[in-house]
Fold:
Amino acid sequence: MASMDIGFNIIEKREYPDQIFKDKMSIIEFLRQVYREEKLPLNFAVFGIENLLYYSEDPEKVSRKIRNLLQDAANFLVRGNYIIQIVVGKIELVESSHNPRIIYKNRLFRLNKIFGMVKQVDLKHFIAPLNLQS
Structure:
């Protein structure tokens, strides 16, 4: 597996179980800390994004809200130079390597709705910058 770089490193848990960072938090805790601009660990793993999308009434709306929050907090995130692992269960490529989807309980969720254009680094490892584009 390629090394983790500063940014959102989206990885499939079963492909890289030994690479997951020691510091872990839920997606809800992560979003809360980002919203409050609380100090985060330099390298940490975030779990549960597929759960959040799956159990929400409107995954598209939730994806937009997450994206907006991350865009609003871009300066905070960039200043911290964080390496953030977004750990998911299963990733599938669709039309191109820039458009992966999460598969959870037979439902598909598009990562680009949250992270925009991502870059494929390894088979099941994608990266998006901390400063998400509008």
In short: The chain is about 30% helix and 30% strand.
